[in-house]
Amino acid sequence: MKGDIGVIGLAVMGQNLILNMNDHGYKVVAHNRTAEKVDEFLQGPAKGTNIVGAYSLQELVDKLESPRKIMLMVRAGDVVDSFIDKLVPLLDKGDIIIDGGNTNFPDTNRRVAALKEKGIHFIGSGVSGGEEGARFGPSIMPGGSPEAWPFVKPIFQAISAKTENNEPCCDWVGNDGAGHFVKMVHNGIEYGDMQLITEAYQFMKDGLGMTHDEMQSVFIEWNKTELNSYLVEITSDILGYKDTDGEPLVEKILDTAGQKGTGKWTGINALDMGIPLTLITESVFARCLSSLKDQRVEAEELFGKKESIVEGDKQVWIEALRQALLASKIISYAQGFMLMREASNENGWDLNYGNVALMWRGGCIIRSAFLSNIRDAYDIDPELSFLGSDSYFKGILENSMTAWRKVAAKSMEVGIPMPSMTSALTFLDGYTTARLPANLLQAQRDYFGAHTYERVDKPKGEFFHTNWTGKGGDVSSTTYNS
Known about the structure:
- The longest helix has 34 residues, at 314-347.
- This protein has helices spanning 12-23, 35-43, 57-62, 78-87, 105-116, 130-136, 149-159, 178-207, 212-222, 230-239, 262-273, 278-290, 293-303, 314-347, 353-359, 371-380, 391-414, 419-431, 438-449; strands at 5-8, 28-31, 52-54, 69-72, 96-99, 121-128, 139-144, 174-175.
- It is of the alpha/beta class.
- The chain is globular and about 80 Å long.
- The model has no long low-confidence stretch (mean pLDDT 94).
- Helix 8 packs across helix 11 (262-273) and helix 14 (314-347) crosses helix 18.
- The chain has an eight-stranded mixed beta sheet, with helices on both faces.
- It contains 19 helices and eight strands.
């Protein structure tokens, strides 16, 4: 009996996905570039299962049912292209290659087109949930060649996480790089969520002078509210974890954050598409700032930086902080969906935003209770341009506004950096302001560069230039794109 699917790459994610597939009755053929890794896997975690090994790509291909389905769980970039180049001569028309890594979506666009010319189908699939998710049910976001989806769908939906209504957190996202784009935005929102939580933690620790046990209790309570989510849950676990000397382990971790690029890609795409992804981009910059540890230590001493204590009723501040965190989190998701909407329009993907919310409801790092509300919002209005306009989320944003402003203002007053939480508030203020000062900005552009402007008392699309000094010319440079 031949295998149902092959998986290349036996790192943590690859191994756990294979074991997950085996649990659901699928025969998996496992391959790794180093034979020792295959042996270790077969004699270790895969011992006693129906998983079989392949020690060459030819053996892998020979052991699979047609159409062959081969999933690459390897490092994104050149490694993926290298395996594709080696696999293609061994495959038949109609066979399927799947990239399950964190790939930049233009690479997936390119690979889908190149392999289509050879008669090979390609799927670029985001997989979220980390080690535990891969083993017991991740969120899976496939896109690429639609012809391939019916062959992969039973496997992916079987191994994916399920909602409380037993709906699989996996569905077809769209053509070409749509799946990897949605995974990229997922990771961008993940950056934003993590940064918002760390800002709340710093406000409690440095501003309110709370102990780690007190903060752990707060996060446990918050997880029983609308903030219920994986990241809030693990934060409470982290804050309660003690080192061997009984002290909180988190305080012994160097405060320099790493990143693998997906948050940066999200920000770059937002800039390219003209979407104000302010919160997520600030969260990326916060990680960049954290990496300047030596400079920050010197600057603190140079400026004599001292954070003031936040005075007042601690419980009142904690509730205000909860509301500010919840409102900011909504803005994080709202900006992410704005970016997906623009990308869908530009690329003709026809994304189903309610389905995206469903795919994120379980298994993934950003899974949270209010993703069900996001799904409901897009079920009511599939063309919803701003998540905050939905009645449920609008109500939360309006009810949280006083507390949100109070926390943002106090953080500025006492010197606690909260870049993502404050930028979220500034974004909403800008988004809900009918007339912004860009009229003056446009006058400046026309003054020094003759870039023209439109008038409120004339039809849109009609451009004007003014000789502001009497010394300039009457010829305009170019019109502008708004």
